[in-house]
Design goal:
alpha/beta, 7 helices, Rossmann fold, binds S-adenosylmethionine, 11 strands
Length: 225
């Protein structure tokens, strides 16, 4: 499907960073209150920072989308090894993505180059993009994804439950639990009570954390807490 078949529009969010609006779902790719601040807060601040002492971290992202979380994680690279696997069912066209203003906002001379490389690397092949940081973008739905290796950290960045309820079903948390290492961490911007309870039923220890600016709460879940 062409990107414009879903009528995707580039819009500015509350912190000046861009996001994409999907008219067909009436959804944004990020918080319209601030895309960049949400990604930095939820995925980097409450997720990646938990692994600062580890030499190696393996990350699974559900929903590569604009590549914002991947860019922020690659820019944060300071450890010997980060491996980043990102799932996506609907890859975006570079013609649209190159209009996003993330590289200009993140204050790093290599950001534009890195952002383009993240988008241009082939699908379904693990590629080392910078020293110690490798990415494999997998063109697959989470539901059909079967991993041979386990993950330390999951960035759960699917569209919201009302837009894509199938990605918030109890079976999803069982699947992810089985794909994670002990003491693994899952973070998501969502804070819905039913989601929290379903995660607990799957075996996670669940924390409700203060959300990013403009959102009251978010979830962080741990395996074998
Ligand atoms: C809320 S957007 C966020 C994307 C991304 N993390 C970003 O920062 O732009 C959700 C993404 O999940 C993708 N997606 C939808 N269904 C999916 C599925 N079943 N498995 C994996 N990804 C899916 C969408 O195409 C979209 O790119």
């Amino acid at each position: 499907m062409e990107n414009n078949a879903l009528n995707i529009e580039l819009v500015e969010s509350g912190d000046g960073s861009h996001t994409l609006k999907v008219a067909a779902l009436n959804e944004h790719y990020h918080s319209h209150k601030g895309a960049l601040q949400e990604s930095l807060y939820v995925f980097i601040g409450k997720g990646l920072r938990q692994f600062d002492e580890k030499d190696c971290v393996s990350i699974l992202e559900v929903g590569f989308g604009t590549g914002l979380n991947a860019l922020l994680t690659a820019l944060d690279q300071h450890r010997p090894k980060t491996s980043y696997v990102s799932l996506e069912t609907f890859p975006l066209d570079w013609a649209l993505v190159q209009q996003l203003n993330y590289p200009q906002l993140v204050n790093d001379d290599h950001a534009a180059e890195l952002f383009e490389a993240l988008h241009r690397v082939p699908w379904n092949v693990e590629t080392e993009l910078k020293q110690g940081f490798s990415i494999e973008k997998i063109e697959s739905s989470l539901q059909l994804f079967n991993s041979t290796s386990k993950f330390d950290l999951v960035y759960y960045d699917a569209f919201a439950p009302h837009a894509q309820p199938e990605l918030w079903e109890p079976s999803i948390w069982n699947q992810l639990y089985s794909m994670m290492n002990d003491r693994g961490v899952l973070v998501t911007y969502c804070a819905k009570g039913q989601v929290r309870r379903d995660m607990q039923t799957a075996g996670f220890t669940v924390e409700r954390l203060e959300g990013p600016p403009g959102k009251r709460e978010m979830i962080r879940a741990r395996k074998n807490g």
